[in-house]
Design goal:
5 helices
């Protein structure tokens, strides 16, 4: 991970040096989509490509609905294909926006 240009604050709870780009792709994509900035988004898109990001994001159950809507539009995928859209969490967040 040391050669990637993501903001290290995205991975505050782990040692970023232990991340493997292929093995931990779902984790990396989820973190960048939910907490990253525009520069992180461009780095993610260069690393994985838009199709892989959209396909992977469809299986992330705690992805926020704004991000799912964004990916649905740019990836031309129906919103109901995203797991976060079809699965309600057992303990919902206080603010739903």
């Amino acid at each position: 991970m040391s050669n990637l240009k993501f903001d290290r604050a995205l991975f505050w709870d782990i040692d970023p040096e232990t991340l493997k780009v292929n093995k931990h792709s779902k984790f990396i994509i989820g973190r960048v989509l939910q907490y990253g900035n525009l520069e992180d988004w461009f780095e993610l898109k260069n690393l994985y490509g838009l199709n892989f990001i959209v396909n992977t994001a469809q299986s992330i159950k705690d992805l926020d609905k704004k991000t799912a809507s964004f990916l649905s539009v740019i990836g031309n995928v129906p919103i109901n294909k995203f797991r976060c859209y079809t699965t309600e969490q057992s303990i919902p967040k206080h603010w739903n926006f």
